[in-house]
TrEMBL record:
Entry keyword annotation includes Glycoprotein: no
Entry's localization field: Nucleus
Superkingdom per UniProt: Eukaryota
Keywords recorded for this protein, A-Z: Hydrolase, Metal-binding, Nuclease, Nucleus
Cofactor: a divalent metal cation
Provenance organism: Rhynchospora breviuscula
The name this protein goes by in its record: DDE Tnp4 domain-containing protein
Domain DDE Tnp4, residue spans: 250-375
Membership in a protein family: Belongs to the HARBI1 family.
Record bears the keyword Hydrolase: yes
A Gene Ontology cellular-component term: nucleus
Amino acid sequence: MPCPSPSPSPAAKRKASSPPSSPSSPSSDEKRLKKLKLKPLPCSRLSQLISLLASSLSLSRRFLDLTLPPSLSLPLDSSLLSASLSLSRLLSLLPLPLQSLSLASLSIPPSLPFPSSWFLRLLSSPNSPSAFPLSFRLSRPAFYSLLQSLRLPFSSLPPEHKLGIALFRLAHAAPFHTIARRFGLSSPSLACQAFYQVCHAITTRLCHLFAFSSDITLLTQGFHHLSLPNCCGVLGYARFPIKHDSLGGSLIAQALIDSNGRFIDLSVGWHGSMKPLQILTRSNLYHTQLVSPPRYVLGGSCCPLLPWLITPYTIGPQSPSTHVVFNQVHACAMDMVNKAFGLVKDRWRLLSEKWKEGQAEALPYVVVAGCLLHNFLENCGEPVPEKVLLGTELVPEPLPGFADFEGEGDEGGIRMRDALASHLIMARPQV
């Protein structure tokens, strides 16, 4: 006896009763558009709308340049440029004859000539003293003092334009096409040439500011407030990021800092995988023997203990008080080099950006320029810009530190450190 077939469900009956949809049948959206009686927009009209949008974006970028500080306007400028490029791609979909109607309004807005540029407006506005520090990380008087010291040649650009371009890029890591627009240049390549020309002038004209051997007595007197006799400086290391791993992801700088936080010796460009010992033994500071006992410099735990390079003790539960006191004073001194590198990176944001591998050859020269500018501004008594002090700029990605030195300390270095520790326990400085 055959089994009875199951009766279809109500949902199946409804599905079976509805006719199959034809692939060519109009969708609900198409029916809705027909009811609204919307007509397709002609290509010529669409091209005009794109032109209006592009012009609005261009005017918006110029408006931001004139009304907001660079730290706020530059991120918005990047978004507006992305919108302009999107419009450019949309325009490329139009018929070729119509593309020419609005192509000039897209890409990067044309630069204003010198008389109307953002930079000259800034120069001609002496009643806004905060504008210079916000734009260039230094005051107007310091700007012109630096300009006089560099003696930049007058070529296709006036010297003040060249210096403004270099300081603006250092301070904000601004792309060259943005700098060209702000300074009224016809090409980003002119901004690039001016930037590296000024960096070269800084490393040439201001190199005397790395004056380690000029007055050793004056250097040692600076550390008397820490009760450190014969101390000539503090040695430290810093990394500057690079996007490619072939260089270890960074370049390393070795610096000697005086008691005022100024760089008195600098060696930059070491491979990111190198250890401080490898860098130290290859540096001029090591081979020229500028420091010898009884004079010395302080170094971190990543350095070897030498008669002229004094590192901290390894502290344990049974460490004597002399070791503890010495390490406290030593840490206060090491803060000087950390602060100096920190101020350089905070003031010149370009040095915290990840540089492309092809640009890595220029990075050491830019780091040297940034440190020399730091010394110049310290000598001028130039205050650190408020935004740098408050930490309101973008925080860079943290970089790896340096491992502790694992070798044995030099016997002469051990005796020197023990003598300093005994002296400090008698002096008992307030730290």
